[in-house]
Write a structure and sequence with these properties.
Blueprint (H helix, E strand, L loop, with lengths): L24 H8 L7 H5 L28 E15 L6 E20 L7 E13 L2 E7 L6 H12 L3 H4 L17 H7 L5 E2 L6 E2 L7 E25 L3 E33 L4 E34 L2 E8 L3 E18 L5 E4 L1 E5 L6 E8 L3 E10 L3 E10 L5 E4 L2 E2 L1 H10 L3 E11 L4 E10 L5 H4 L14 E18 L2 E17 L4 E5 L2 E5 L3 E18 L1
Antiparallel strand pairs: 1-2, 1-25, 2-3, 3-7, 4-7, 5-6, 7-8, 8-9, 8-12, 9-10, 9-11, 10-15, 11-13, 11-14, 14-17, 15-16, 16-19, 17-18, 19-20, 20-21, 21-22, 22-25, 23-24
Length: about 550
């Protein structure tokens, strides 16, 4: 493009970092998350089972719990999930509801008596467990935006030093999405969509937003997929006092993201074809939108070690360590834009500019990489009261700054730097209780609280945030709470358990990164359009099992 004089605006250099990595720190966090998932008994006590054992779910938490078993066990779990997600506040709130059924857990424990006082039992087990569900859908409108994504992208293009030739459309054997000098995909897509335009025909760019511009933004995010874990465990007990176990977990992950962001702007600085058949700029109306489709899939392996000590019948103490899950991953991504511009003074116009554009001519981009989730430590204590009641407490520590992304065996040091800037360790407290109303019938309740893994600098808009590719939006999760309750019934070898689980999570959606620049009056911070997101998730869980 060759754009005529843009005398009224001055584009200032941004301090935003150039985004060259195919994966981002947010991708590492996405597949590192786990939910409260397992059997109905486990979930009804908020997962506070690290010192208890004797449940199919403990193979994925504290494998030392397998040593508690004196008989074999087989069971399966289903759940009914009702999720409501709200974006915005008050009159600007938008609600999306989803309902689905899930096959949550199935497992088998084989208990073998050794007839030895030193080690009475040696046990092994296999479980399938849905470790995490990514299903979330929200959308909204953000009124009175104070800047535009196009201005942010223009700053990136200038910071990267790209020229109009670098970002130009695919032609004459040159593909800006694949060939040297490898400009970033967002700048390329924006330039070929007229979202950023060159100033005075030179190699510096401006967005659509100028002094006096007003308008609103619209967004939609739909996530889906899950992390499945298949666990094989082996363990036993020593003198019915020390219960030990080890697990190997094989995981598969499938994460899908559809995201949309668009803007409608009045008094914007828009391109058009003038009556001399040249591209030019004028004040006018701009409407544009961008869709991103992104998928991550792969398999991983992890190891878990755990011990439960029972110094007296009324007290149990548990400790477990989880290695990172070492993933081999594939990501696929594609994006497209639609746009339309209309100058206020149509007497100048030969033709309005509108149309659409795709990344890499509509071909899906593919990247292969390795990823490492955080280390975990779990400490637990449980007490048995009068042979009828159980109180249990778990503490879990997740070391998120140790997440890693690698390509061909080499760590991406830039992404690792962002991970350390954005993330801190997160702690989870789980409290559970069970009371036997009769020898066969039990009531249960629990509570879990998980702290946000994000540092204050990113939560308080003090960082320029790097994403990857053309997906500039991101969501920061706040603390997560679970309120749980349930009941269970035993009849001879059969058991049936029910649980109700309520999950609260607050987040904040950002259309793109905060941006900073400096002019004659000093430094400035431009805050992006953003919106509050609230999840309210209810689950009804059912487990049927048989011990023999």
């Amino acid at each position: 493009m060759k754009i005529a004089s843009y005398m009224a605006a001055i584009l200032l250099a941004t301090t935003a970092v150039q985004q060259m990595s195919a994966q981002s720190a947010f991708d590492a966090y996405t597949i590192s998350q786990t939910d409260l998932k397992g059997t109905a008994r486990f979930m009804s006590m908020a997962g506070a089972f690290g010192a208890l054992g004797g449940d199919l779910s403990v193979l994925n938490q504290n494998p030392g719990g397998i040593g508690i078993y004196r008989s074999s066990d087989i069971g399966f779990t289903l759940d009914w999930n009702i999720k409501k997600t709200t974006a915005g506040d008050g009159a600007q709130s938008y609600n999306v509801k989803n309902t689905n059924f899930n096959f949550n857990n199935i497992g088998y424990i084989g208990a073998f008596r050794t007839h030895s006082d030193a080690m009475p039992n040696v046990n092994w087990g296999f479980t399938y467990n849905k470790a995490a569900s990514f299903n979330r859908h929200y959308s909204g409108r953000i009124s009175n935006i104070g800047t535009s994504m196009t201005n942010y992208v223009a700053g990136q293009a200038n910071y990267g030093g790209w020229t109009t030739g670098d970002l130009g459309a695919v032609q004459d054997g040159y593909n800006p999405y694949q060939d040297y000098p490898y400009p970033d995909w967002m700048s390329t897509l924006a330039y070929n969509s007229y979202l950023i335009n060159s100033l005075n025909g030179k190699n510096n760019f401006a967005g659509l937003y100028q002094n006096g511009t007003s308008g609103y933004g619209e967004f939609e995010v739909q996530e889906s997929g899950q992390v499945n874990e298949y666990t094989i465990s082996f363990g036993g007990n020593v003198y019915n006092t020390v219960y030990w176990g080890a697990s190997i977990g094989i995981t598969d992950v499938d994460y899908n993201l559809y995201s949309y962001y668009g803007e409608s702007l009045n008094n914007a600085y828009v391109p058009y074809i003038d009556k001399n058949n040249n591209e030019n700029m004028a004040d006018g109306y701009a409407s544009w939108g961008m869709e991103n489709q992104f998928r991550m899939s792969g398999t991983g392996v992890n190891f878990k070690l755990g011990v439960i000590l029972k110094p007296i019948n009324e007290l149990r103490v548990g400790v477990a360590f989880h290695t990172p899950t070492f993933y081999s991953m594939k990501s696929e991504y594609i994006a497209n834009t639609s746009f339309g511009f209309s100058p206020e003074n149509q007497d100048l116009v030969l033709q309005n500019i509108d149309g659409s554009a795709w990344t890499d001519e509509g071909y899906t981009g593919v990247t292969y990489f390795d990823m490492q989730t955080p280390w975990k430590f779990i400490g637990s204590v449980a007490g048995v009261i009068g042979g009828r009641a159980i109180l249990s407490l778990d503490y879990e520590h997740n070391v998120y700054p140790k997440m890693k992304v690698s390509y061909d065996g080499s760590e991406d040091m830039q992404v690792s730097s962002y991970i350390k800037q954005y993330y801190k360790s997160s702690d989870i407290i789980r409290v559970g209780a069970e009371f036997k109303v009769t020898p066969s019938w039990s009531l249960r309740a629990g509570y879990s609280y998980q702290t946000s893994p994000y540092k204050e600098d990113i939560r308080d808009d003090r960082l320029n945030v790097a994403t990857a590719g053309t997906t500039l939006s991101y969501t920061l999760d706040d603390n997560i709470q679970y309120f749980t309750a349930g009941t269970g019934y035993r009849y001879k070898a059969f058991y049936v358990d029910f649980a109700f689980v309520h999950k609260n999570r607050s987040s904040e959606y950002y259309a793109f990164s905060p941006d900073s620049y400096t002019d004659d009056s000093g430094p400035h911070l431009l805050l992006p359009p953003k919106s509050k997101i609230k999840d309210s998730n209810n689950e009804i869980v059912f487990t049927l099992g048989f011990k023999f």
